[in-house]
Design a protein that fits this description.
- Helices cover about 40% and strands about 20% of the residues.
- The chain is elongated, with a radius of gyration of 28 Å.
- The protein is of the alpha/beta class.
- It contains 11 helices and 12 strands.
- The relative contact order is 0.15.
- It folds into 2 domains: about 120 residues, Quinolinate phosphoribosyl transferase, N-terminal domain (Aldehyde Oxidoreductase, domain 3, Alpha-Beta Complex); about 110 residues, Alpha-Beta Barrel (TIM Barrel), CATH 3.20.20.
- Helix 9 links the parallel strand 9 and strand 10.
Length: about 300
């Protein structure tokens, strides 16, 4: 688990239960215990289960949590992914925050699996972007991996990506590439974003290692691939949807980056259900001991 995860959990719990859980504490005394399960309301790829377990124990260390699945597992509708037992008020206090983490992350991993499966025959790698929920990047990129896709850079410091605003401010693609090559470590690849064939040619002239074809139609991508002719790695980004993915998985394309994996994934359908309290059979009344007749 990422070191920042506990901080995110604490922020979420402070937001939801910073003043306590008035309803649950009013109804249930500390001695009242329950059992509950979290189950899938749809077919999905599970993610965030350990985070959810941490939410429960963060609220109350006496809650006992059992994971019935692991991150990355395919789960069918109706399957149980987590069991929890302990003080009822604590369990209900943690419920929404735990579900928020699982639903968000499982939504990302489920959508990522759909993209990964669609791209698999072509061998093109599908990657995410930095379009993540602020503070949640490590968790959301973990969810992308659980779905079978890959991660692009985690932060601005990982590799050079020269975008349109860099080029405008630097004066040209050549200037931007030259300055980056002089300043970046020798191990760093230089990637240049190109929106037109003219910019593709400029990037090739500057000897960019990777060319990102930004918001190009499939026809423009084909023309750009003919110009590049294997002289640089090719990434496609912008406007690629699951419905149009196969139009872009062309020979010569190495990577397709999809911001929708994290910024537009719908929450997965999961819910927590309390199990019925076990019924106790009333104790049978004790029969008075039989008295033996006295011998005469």
């Amino acid at each position: 688990m990422h070191p920042r995860t506990d901080t995110l959990i604490d922020l979420a719990l402070e937001e939801d239960a910073g003043l306590g859980d008035l309803t649950s504490r009013a109804i249930f005394p500390p001695t009242h215990h329950s059992r509950a399960v979290i189950e899938a309301g749809q077919d999905l790829v599970a993610c965030g289960l350990e985070v959810a377990a941490r939410v429960f124990t963060r609220v109350d260390p006496t809650l006992k949590v059992e994971l019935a699945a692991a991150d990355g597992d395919f789960v069918s509708k109706g399957d149980i992914v987590l069991r929890v037992a302990g003080p009822t008020a604590s369990l209900l206090t943690a419920e929404r925050t735990a579900l928020n983490f699982i639903q968000r992350l499982s939504g990302i991993s489920t959508l990522s699996r759909r993209f990964a499966d669609a791209a698999a025959p072509s061998g093109v790698r599908i990657v995410d972007t930095r379009k993540t929920t602020p503070g949640f990047r490590a968790l959301e990129k973990h969810a992308v991996r659980c779905g079978g896709c890959s991660n692009h850079r985690f932060s601005l410091g990982e590799h050079v990506l020269i975008k349109d605003n860099h080029i405008v401010a630097a004066g040209s693609v050549g200037n931007a590439v030259a300055r980056c090559r002089a300043a970046a470590p020798h191990t760093a690849r230089i990637e240049v974003e190109a929106k037109t064939l003219a910019e593709v040619r400029e990037a090739l002239k500057a000897e960019a290692d990777v060319i990102l074809l930004d918001n190009m139609s499939p026809a423009m991508v084909r023309n750009a691939l003919a110009v590049i002719a294997g002289r640089a790695l090719v990434e496609i980004s912008g406007g690629v949807r699951l419905e149009t993915l196969r139009e872009f998985t062309l020979p010569g394309v190495d990577v397709i980056s999809v911001g929708a994996l994290t910024h537009s994934a719908p929450a997965a359908d999961l819910s927590l259900t309390l199990l019925p309290q076990p019924t106790r059979k009333p104790k049978a009344a004790k029969k008075p001991p039989r008295r033996r007749p006295k011998r005469r």
